[in-house]
């Protein structure tokens, strides 16, 4: 991928650590035009980009994790003579989950889609946690939507696949050196869990709390804590985002599990994939069940090893 000639197409957006632009290139095999999203950072944020590439390199071929191309971070000079750092990544034509939600009335997704998207995110988290990483910044902006077409019941229908992106803040499970009372956030404050804010605990429970926030947002069209002024003290006192009373019962149960005050009570991604909130006839027929079972086995072996 690094040897291909990338041609700038358009600017896609800007984040905390750099910008993302769309580039096109010709596939050598048949000359077809393909697209790549290129993430660019300057000197100040180069370390984050290198870290993200290193983490993503460990998830090559994982269907629920955005894929990066090439063998390393590319360095080049921009038109002002400054060094830029770039990584080409697969392009999500559907944009982020945040922008995808804008297409729906009141930004509320249909319930079958919410359940399907939740399953995909849990698959991604199972893979991430199976390699002892914690994403630390799961939110709609960091979830990418890949549109596709499927043939079902005699007709072609739109379908969507989700992938988790933006691993610049990802940490190894148990890492807490980042935490400071005056800077208690590993990721975006309103998606953080109580234990991560109060004493810097970085475990899978943090991502599962964030997942609950994302699911709640897909149901309500509103960010968590919309009902009150977000206050650190409220979160540390074990309050959780408001769960509307008119949500389906199984959705409430799922969200209550994600928002359990004790991280262990939130279970794990593999367990939540079998929650009553997700239809059995869907979750039992996952094409990557085998890989998920391998991740479960890795987790079990790791826990046995730490007990010895």
UniProtKB/TrEMBL annotation:
Binding residues annotated for ATP, in chain numbering: 39
GO molecular function terms attached to this record: ATP binding; protein serine/threonine kinase activity
SMART domains per UniProt: S_TKc
Keywords of the record: ATP-binding, Kinase, Nucleotide-binding, Serine/threonine-protein kinase, Transferase
Positions of transmembrane segments: none
Domain Protein kinase, chain residue ranges per copy: 6-278
GO BP term, pick one: signal transduction
A Pfam family assignment: Pkinase
PROSITE patterns: PROTEIN_KINASE_ATP, PROTEIN_KINASE_DOM, PROTEIN_KINASE_ST
Classification via InterPro entries: Kinase-like_dom_sf, Plant_MAPKKK, Prot_kinase_dom, Protein_kinase_ATP_BS, Ser/Thr_kinase_AS
Protein family according to the UniProt entry: Belongs to the protein kinase superfamily.
Official protein name in the record: Protein kinase domain-containing protein
Species in which this protein is naturally found: Capsella rubella
């Amino acid at each position: 991928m690094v040897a291909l000639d990338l041609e700038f197409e358009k600017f896609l957006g800007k984040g905390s650590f750099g910008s993302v632009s769309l580039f096109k290139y010709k596939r050598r095999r048949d000359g077809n035009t393909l697209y790549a999203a290129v993430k660019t950072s300057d000197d100040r944020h180069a370390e984050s980009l290198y870290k993200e590439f290193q983490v993503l390199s460990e998830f090559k071929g994982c269907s629920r994790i955005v894929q990066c191309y090439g063998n390393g971070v590319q360095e080049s000079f921009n038109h002002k003579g400054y060094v830029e750092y770039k990584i080409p990544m697969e392009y999500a034509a559907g944009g982020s989950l945040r922008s995808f939600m804008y297409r729906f009335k009141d930004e509320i997704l249909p319930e079958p889609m919410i359940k399907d998207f939740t399953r995909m995110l849990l698959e991604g988290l199972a893979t991430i946690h199976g390699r002892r990483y914690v994403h630390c910044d799961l939110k709609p902006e960091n979830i990418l939507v890949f549109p596709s077409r499927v043939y079902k019941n005699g007709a072609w229908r739109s379908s969507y696949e989700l992938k988790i992106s933006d691993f610049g803040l990802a940490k190894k499970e148990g890492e807490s050196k980042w935490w400071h009372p005056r800077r208690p956030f590993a990721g975006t404050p309103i998606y953080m869990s109580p234990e991560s804010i109060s004493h810097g605990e970085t475990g899978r429970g943090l991502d599962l709390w964030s997942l609950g926030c994302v699911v709640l947002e897909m149901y309500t069209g509103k960010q968590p804590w919309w009902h009150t002024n977000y206050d650190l003290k409220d979160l540390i006192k074990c309050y959780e985002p408001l769960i509307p009373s008119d949500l389906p019962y199984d959705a409430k149960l799922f969200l209550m599990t994600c928002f359990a005050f004790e991280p262990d009570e939130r279970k794990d991604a593999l367990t939540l994939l079998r929650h009553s909130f997700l239809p059995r006839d869907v979750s039992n027929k996952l094409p990557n069940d085998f890989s998920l079972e391998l991740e479960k086995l890795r987790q079990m072996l790791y826990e046995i090893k730490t007990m010895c």
